[in-house]
Automatic annotation (TrEMBL):
This protein's name: TRAP transporter small permease protein
Domain Tripartite ATP-independent periplasmic transporters DctQ component, first and last residues per copy: 40-170
Protein origin, superkingdom: Bacteria
Pfam family, one: DctQ
A molecular function GO annotation: transmembrane transporter activity
UniProt main location, coarse: membrane
Keyword DNA-binding: no
UniProt subunit comment: The complex comprises the extracytoplasmic solute receptor protein and the two transmembrane proteins.
Membrane-related topology note: Multi-pass membrane protein
Protein keywords: Cell inner membrane, Cell membrane, Membrane, Transmembrane, Transmembrane helix, Transport
Family: Belongs to the TRAP transporter small permease family.
InterPro entries in alphabetical order: DctQ, TRAP_DctQ
C-alpha cells in the first residue's frame, strides 16, 4: 500500500480517541451507505415503471426519502467518530499543540452537552410521534396514499442518534483529557 493510499484509508476510519465505540460506528456505517444505494435502485426502478410501463408505484418516493434520511442522521455520528465535524480552523490550526488539546476537550464537552440537549428535545418530539393521547402506541404516519410510519421511525432514529452522538463526544472529551490516542 502506498503512502497516499494509507492516508486515504486513515481519513476514512474512526480516530483513536473515538475509542471502541467510534470503531463500532465506523463499521456500522456501511448499512446507511447501502441504504443510499438501495434508494438509487428504487428510483431507477420507479423511472422505468413510470415512463416505460406507465405504472408508477405509491411507495418509491417516500422510501427513498426515508433511506436517505437515515444516512443523513447517521452521518453526524460518523463525522464525530472520524473527527470530520465542522471546526473553525482559521484559529484552531494556528494553536500550539497543548492549547489545541484544551480546545479539543472543551469543544467535545460542549458538543456532548448540546447533543444530549437535542436528544432530550427529540424525545419530546418522539412522545408526540409515537404515542396517542390515550397512551396507546401508534407511530406517526406520512398521511399519503401509502401512509407508512416513516415520520415516526425517523424521529425515533434521530433521538437515538443524538443520544449516541452525545456519548461519542463524551468519549472524545475524556480521551482528549487523558491524552490517549
Amino acid at each position: 500500500m502506498t503512502d497516499e493510499e494509507e492516508v486515504v484509508r486513515e481519513e476514512h476510519t474512526a480516530i483513536p480517541e473515538a475509542g471502541a465505540f467510534g470503531r463500532l460506528v465506523d463499521r456500522v456505517a456501511i448499512l446507511p451507505a447501502m441504504g443510499i444505494v438501495a434508494a438509487m435502485a428504487i428510483l431507477i426502478q420507479e423511472v422505468v415503471l413510470r415512463y416505460v410501463f406507465a405504472a408508477p408505484t405509491i411507495w418509491a418516493h417516500e422510501t427513498t426519502v426515508f433511506l436517505c434520511a437515515i444516512a443523513f442522521i447517521f452521518g453526524g455520528l460518523l463525522c464525530a467518530s472520524r473527527d470530520r465535524h465542522i471546526r473553525v480552523v482559521l484559529v484552531y490550526d494556528y494553536l500550539p499543540a497543548g492549547l489545541r488539546r484544551v480546545f479539543d476537550i472543551v469543544i467535545s464537552a460542549v458538543c456532548a452537552l448540546s447533543s444530549a440537549a437535542f436528544a432530550w428535545a427529540a424525545w419530546l418530539m418522539v412522545q408526540r410521534a409515537a404515542w396517542r393521547p390515550d397512551g396507546s402506541f401508534h407511530l406517526e404516519t406520512s398521511g399519503s396514499a401509502w401512509n407508512p410510519a416513516y415520520p415516526g421511525l425517523l424521529k425515533i432514529l434521530l433521538m437515538v442518534a443524538l443520544g449516541l452522538l452525545a456519548i461519542q463526544f463524551l468519549i472524545l472529551a475524556i480521551n482528549y483529557a487523558k491524552g490517549r490516542r
